[in-house]
Task: inverse folding
């Protein structure tokens, strides 16, 4: 975030479209607080910011002098829009100036969180997890839907307190686990025991050895230590 006067026309390579916000020419002096608020209003109208996304704007330094402009202020994104962005404010009056405002985006969603640090290799128990709100943009993987659905799963990589838990952090079925194999045969559900030959998360197709026949089958992971096959 910085402020400098332009000595030449602005290069046209800035990314994203420019939106004109018209202020009353009778109020041609803008304080840092007014410019910050105007940035927030402009962000609400931009297609690059998805619905439901919260914008956290770094306020302009209140020690900055008010800015004079007898033209409509121009706003645009000065670069790509990801988890954060920079908004470029310009005044094209005879004495032009520009400012840059930093913005961070978040999209809150229901999530399962770790209550404490959980080392790799641990088995998930009820006292390790809780539910709460988390930034969807920071979640790296498929969110766990409920703590109950992963009880007994093994942690593949260490979790820190307050971290969003994803399926990629766990193995619902780990190589060497004794699992229940279930399937429908002529309308009847058949269950038997097997040994997992590889790790898997919900929906993965993994190889499992039938403990009775030693036959290797391919089954879908449907829950912790449970797989299903189609006969």
Result:
């Amino acid at each position: 975030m910085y402020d400098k006067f332009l000595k030449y026309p602005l290069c046209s390579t800035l990314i994203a479209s420019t939106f004109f916000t018209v202020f009353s020419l009778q109020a041609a002096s803008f304080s840092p607080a007014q410019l910050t608020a105007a940035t927030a209003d402009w962000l609400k109208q931009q297609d690059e910011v998805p619905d439901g996304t919260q914008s956290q704007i770094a306020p302009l330094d209140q020690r900055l002098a008010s800015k004079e402009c007898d033209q409509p202020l121009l706003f645009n994104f000065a670069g790509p829009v990801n988890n954060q962005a920079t908004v470029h404010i310009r005044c094209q009056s005879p004495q032009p100036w520009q400012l840059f405002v930093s913005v961070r985006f978040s999209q809150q969603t229901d999530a399962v969180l770790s209550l404490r640090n959980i080392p790799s290799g641990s088995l998930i128990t009820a006292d390790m997890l809780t539910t709460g709100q988390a930034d969807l943009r920071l979640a790296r993987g498929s969110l766990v839907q409920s703590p109950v659905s992963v009880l007994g799963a093994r942690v593949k990589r260490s979790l820190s307190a307050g971290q969003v838990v994803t399926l990629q952090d766990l193995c619902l079925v780990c190589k060497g686990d004794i699992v229940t194999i279930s399937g429908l045969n002529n309308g009847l559900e058949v269950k038997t025991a097997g040994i997992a030959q590889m790790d898997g998360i919900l929906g993965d197709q993994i190889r499992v050895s039938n403990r009775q026949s030693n036959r290797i089958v391919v089954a879908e992971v449907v829950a912790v230590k449970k797989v299903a096959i189609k006969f």
